[in-house]
Design goal:
Two copies of one chain form a homodimer. Chain A is an all-alpha fold. Chain A contains 15 helices and two strands.
């Protein structure tokens, strides 16, 4: 199925605009001391990221009839957590990457110490952005912080996944281990983006579960297509170092299954994700479009 | 004035016992994957830290008549944030320290990547421990996360202070800059420990302000005595590398004022702190004992 490219791309562009404007308000300006720290934070935060996770918060929230002003803080918070993880993952002791989103990584430009602190500050500001969101009830804010902390922490979240990824580097791992790593490292934050929209939208239990399953499949789809893009696209198109996974002999779908079979898997996961949407008693075309978009994305 | 050493040391020992037991429950055990990450977290968290900040939460909370079970999660959370900051501050790109609390620093034992992730996970778990504390109202939890995020973040909190400290290294700085660095880096977390106890204890505005001023002076006192201990005590007594500040030519009170004048300053700050307690309409002897304890501490 061909994605509704035009509408969805407009939607994503609009989300990026809204979330960028909110992030600009939440983060200290670059003329406030300590200047190096705030410049470093802004360097990584405003580097032309796709804002996929915020768009996903908005998409699910919109399906549940929530207005954007109730979604914007948590969307910005999730993007801050994503950005902090990229800054730390790029460090020399981690993935040691020089290029991210088409520009120098944070530590290349500002030094390792400032990059570590920039990441620390972004995690901090993310949780603050949620608890300070007076548009949501205290109970909703509590639930959001808790579920997002789970998704970005350990033992099941993003930080655990990054640790597992480091441990697995250069080792033979099973496909179950590979999927477990992706689920924790990438999938959990994509899942919680969708869940946040559903929580703010007062989704019932069945709908919350359907959104969770949909998002988990989408997270897997995102990872498979990410791995595929790494081997099929150039560094220039990606804005990060292409072929990086191969040179570091990291476990990827194409490395384990080959390119053709990985593409086949991507289609099956996409189908499975879309089947979950039937359990949601709302117009879900927007979410189907998101799934299509990820399947067919070129960067 | 001679401190009520025996009673207060019993109180601090009891607080340490209670907070250690809670931390043990909050942090994944070392046999849960990813094992290296959880071992690293526990290595730094259970390294015989003084648990001064948790004791301060308990002391203020007790003055306001709060039972320990309502204070324990936030006390543990503040200790987790303190520990994450130590792990990151010790990294080679930051203070590059090999020894902390008498044992190898986290990155010396587990590698830099795992140490960075251990710090990230601890910050995450800290906020989660507060929002998951069902013994407190949602509003109280929200207020605690917000004020603790302020105190540990940027531009006025701990992360900002660490950045300013790094920038100041090897430079001539004024005493105003020195105090600003300490206020952000160390003072803010000590202040928020006291404020947290006061918030949970439903302190009125005047009392909250008095506790804030008391704690700010105590934070300053803590830093002056810390700087003094660095030049007057051996590495063995301190459990961290003594003379470190001098060898790194960092700005310290003894470096700027000399030892005798720094000791004189410590006594004046102590006096000022204790004067604030008169504004609190509760028995505050416990807080006076804490102030005495910091003035006279030997490690």
């Amino acid at each position: 199925m061909v994605p509704e490219t035009e509408n969805l791309q407009q939607f994503i562009a609009k989300c990026a605009e809204v979330v960028d404007s909110k992030l600009d308000k939440l983060v200290p300006t670059a003329d406030i001391e300590p200047i190096a720290l705030h410049r470093a934070i802004r360097h990584s935060l405003f580097a032309g990221g796709k804002r996929f996770r915020p768009a996903f918060v908005f998409a699910v929230g919109n399906v549940f009839g929530v207005s954007n002003d109730k979604l914007i803080n948590v969307a910005a918070a999730i993007e801050m957590i994503h950005t902090y993880s990229l800054i730390h993952d790029d460090l020399p002791s981690m993935d040691d990457d020089d290029l991210r989103r088409g520009r120098e990584t944070c530590h290349k430009k500002f030094g390792e110490a400032t990059a570590i602190l920039a990441g620390d500050a972004l995690q901090n500001m993310a949780f603050q952005a949620i608890v300070d969101d007076v548009g949501l009830s205290a109970e909703t804010r509590i639930r959001l912080v808790s579920i997002i902390a789970d998704a970005s922490g350990t033992p099941f979240g993003m930080v655990a996944g990054q640790q597992e990824d480091l441990t697995a580097e250069g080792q033979e791992i099973t496909i179950e281990q590979l999927e477990q790593i992706h689920r924790a490292k990438t999938g959990s934050m994509i899942r919680v983006s969708a869940q946040s929209g559903a929580i703010i939208g007062d989704a019932g239990d069945v709908e919350f579960e359907a959104i969770t399953d949909f998002a988990e499949n989408l997270g897997l789809l995102f990872q498979i297509t990410d791995d595929l893009l790494d081997v099929t696209q150039s560094t220039k198109t990606l804005g990060k170092t292409a072929g990086k996974d191969i040179s570091a002999s990291k476990a990827t779908y194409p490395a384990v299954y080959g390119i053709a079979e990985s593409q086949n898997m991507a289609e099956k996961v996409h189908e499975k994700a879309c089947r979950e949407l039937a359990r949601i008693n709302k117009p879900t075309q927007l979410l189907r479009d998101v799934a299509d978009f990820i399947l067919h994305r070129e960067k």
